[in-house]
Amino acid sequence: MSRESFRRSLRDKGPFSLKTHPSRKRKEEILHIAKSPVVTMAPTTPIYDGIQIMAKEGFRRIPIANPGTRSLEGIVTATDVIDYLGGGKKYEIIQKKFAGNIFKAINEPIKSIMIKKVVSVKTSEKISEAIKLMTQKNLGGLPVIDDENRVRAIITERDVANMFVDRISNVTVTQLMSKKVVTALPKTTIFEAEKTMITEGFRRLPIISDGKVVGIITVMDIIRFFGLGKVFKYLKSGTINQVLNIRALEIATKDVVTIDPNADVGQAAKIMQEKNIGALPVVKNKKLVGIITERDFFKIIG
């Protein structure tokens, strides 16, 4: 079935269509699905405070705003944090500026790793415009701002995926899933997992042994490892290299929720919502055959 057929099937069955969505007639329709009020941080907030907020609240991105005016100044995502903690070029800050000392590094102000050129969406925009921007820019979420550049809310892939819960029929997981899955091994270290995530642009890696899924390591698993204090059990000298060489499987989710390739996409959306997860490994005969993520729902709308 082609993408146009997907969209046609949605229109024919009537469960969901952006073109006929009732909220389109409402003012500031985007605020009906975006999360508000939104948690923001000041540019001077220590990175560790940001990591703790992400870990405790489950946020994958936090807008950086002026504490007085709430004017948007930047954004930090879980991926930016992973980049800083060993995954990419931002890791050079820890190595060069702090000689690998994790205690000094995590007290650096959040503005050191934030994205300054933020892609955002106005409260007056349609939901479809937000989805278009996320698709074009390959972003998992957008701050929602008013005409004064003040942060009002945040819209994410998860908010879009939740619109599909119990709404879609005759579209199977296998039609939307990614068949080429980047994976990790039981021996893969946190450092290696981070590098792969940043290089390949993925927020999660299924951990495979003999073709079977034995765990899944996500950016949020790593955020929780650092943010909830588990990391300090492994520290002796205070250098970050010690913890980055731990096997990713040690901090990964081992009770992995999977889905059958022939399952309905609406069922996948419902499981993701109920389990509060962003992806489902697709398994057939106990073997990994693909992965479906919140982003894959965009294929139906786009």
Short description:
This protein is α+β, with helices and mostly antiparallel strands. Helices cover 35% and strands 17% of the residues.
Could you say what the CATH topology of the largest domain is called? CBS-domain
As for the number of domains, it is 2
Biggest sheet, in brief?
3 strands, mixed
pLDDT < 50 stretches: 9-17, 19-25
Radius of gyration: 20 Å
CATH architecture of the largest domain: Roll
**CATH superfamily grouping of the largest domain:** CBS-domain
Element layout with pairings:
Layout: H1 3-13, H2 47-57, E1 61-65, E2 72-77, H3 78-87, H4 91-98, H5 102-105, E3 121-122, H6 127-137, E4 141-145, E5 151-156, H7 157-162, H8 173-176, H9 190-200, E6 204-209, E7 212-218, H10 219-227, H11 240-244, H12 265-275, E8 279-284, E9 287-293, H13 298-301
Parallel strand pairs: 3-4
Antiparallel strand pairs: 1-2, 4-5, 6-7, 8-9
Helix pairs in contact: 2-10, 3-4, 3-9, 3-10
Descriptive account of the structure:
The protein has about 300 residues and is an alpha+beta fold. It has 2 domains: about 15-160, CBS-domain (Roll); about 175-300, Roll (CBS-domain). It is about 35% helix and about 15% strand. The chain contains 13 helices and 9 strands. The strands form 4 sheets. It has a 3-stranded mixed sheet with strand order 3-4-5. The chain has a two-stranded antiparallel sheet with strand order 1-2. Helix 3 crosses helix 4 (about 90-100), helix 3 packs across helix 9 and helix 3 packs across helix 10. It is flat and about 55 Å long. Residues about 10-15 and about 20-25 have low confidence and may be disordered.
